[in-house]
Amino acid sequence: MTGxxxxxxxxxxxxxxxxxxxxxVYAAVAFSGFWSGSFVGAFIMVMVAMLPMNVFAYDKxxxxxxxxxxxxxxxxxxxxxxxxxxxxLCLGSAAFSAVLGVxxxxxxxxxxxxxxxxxxxxxxxxxxxxxxxVMLPLLYKFGSERARMMFYGVIxxxxxxGAVFLGPLGxxxxxxxxxTPTMEQVATVPVIAAMAGLVLLALSFLLxxxxxxxxxx
Amino acid sequence: xxxxxxxxxxxxxxxxxxxxxxDLTVPGGSILGLIGENGAGKSTLIKSMLGIAKPSxxxxxxxxxxPDHAKEDIGVVMDDCFFSEYLRVKDVNSVLSRVYKDWDKAxxxxxxxxxxxxxxxxxxELSRGMRMKLSLAAALAHRPKLLLLDEATAGLDPVVxxxxxxxxxxxxxxxxxxxxxxxxxxxxxxxxxxxxxxxHQGKLLMxxxxxxxxxxxxxxxxxxADLEQIDRGYLVATRKSQYSTEALIRHxxxxxxxxxxxxxxxxxxxxxxxxxxxxxxS
Lengths: 217, 282
Known about the structure:
The complex is a heterodimer of chains A (about 220) and B (about 280).
Chain A: H1 2-32, H2 37-61, H3 64-70, H4 75-106, H5 114-166, H6 183-213
Helix pairs in contact in A: 1-2, 1-4, 2-4, 2-5, 4-5, 4-6, 5-6
Chain B: E1 3-13, E2 18-27, E3 30-35, H1 42-50, E4 57-62, H2 67-70, E5 74-77, H3 89-96, H4 105-114, H5 128-140, E6 146-150, H6 158-171, E7 178-182, H7 186-192, E8 195-200, E9 203-209, H8 210-216, E10 218-222, H9 224-229, E11 235-240, E12 245-249, H10 252-258, E13 263-266, H11 269-278, E14 280-281
Parallel strand pairs in B: 3-7, 3-8, 5-6, 6-7
Antiparallel strand pairs in B: 1-2, 1-4, 8-9, 10-12, 10-13, 11-12, 11-14
């Protein structure tokens, strides 16, 4: 299984290198005070959330799936390796964001406090895991080209449902009625976000395994 | 000698195509050449054997066990290189050494050296021949006992093909080893295969020892009037044109004794296929 994880990272090597270069530039912009650290942190996750789609596309390009299933790995471990890769990418980008926040704070370049920034990082991590939790089963079921369209469709439906059901209730204004959270409550956000992300990924894994398990490649 | 491949009643159903039922056995120390026209089901058969395409029925035993448990001892080469262009040749070594328990990094490197494939190159830079050599090195570096090759020599020049065929012959010098190779290049199979299986529209039309097959069938070239005089039991298929009449006949030796006046030429696997697919069945 580690071989397949390594393969995914090696395929992404060039892309990750380009991303790293972009991030260094963005981090420099954040140091200059032009962008806030939170923006850069969120941007990292957006970039990382799209990477698994690239891996599927690259695999399709060379018909890797046929060869992959001829290897002594099995379908469950093949899917697990892809999820492990996604998890590592999400955690890696969250760690990068956190380090960036610490450095910005130490250099007195952080507009918001470090605590608030780290909470933002955790929420962004959760969003990244949520995006992949939706995206990966679609990729296993429909392949990289159709899954992209399906994903936009799913997001569209979620936004539409939100507008239909939350609109009459005044959107998310009700959140303001909850009052200002205490520091203890805020401190639990990263833990809750990480756990929620892991649960979502676990459920998503079961769905992907089901799709891939019965798929003829 | 044990059987490396045993297939009983294998069926794979698609909406518009059905493979099988296939019964096939490949003993150790031998090469089975799988022939058939495009879309005959050769790749489907190999994929079904490995569980890449889930069989609709039947039983596949590879190296005495079920395919999933045998994969550590199976090397696979398909008609194209499955490694991403974004990988380097040496990455294949790093990746597959973590996949196969018995992967031998030094052996992989020795195959690369033998085939003159540079490890530092990216796969994008390799020619088709080099990519196939890389695939073959990857299929051999974990010391498999069974090789499943789907059009592995397609698109290669004769020199490279010859090198690869030599490698196959060396591989099956061990009685525990076997190869199933599908190929349109029937001359390659005539050179190395011990058995020939002919797949046509998903059905196994014939499966026999190659020498036996080429020995028992013959190509009769005669006048139309002569053809009318021949016992129909010897005729497999005929091809008639304005200028010539040809027939594929079985029991060649017996036929020659009975009809010494007629010319019976040896038949090639290509001719065998063409007669069966395009000839009038007798």
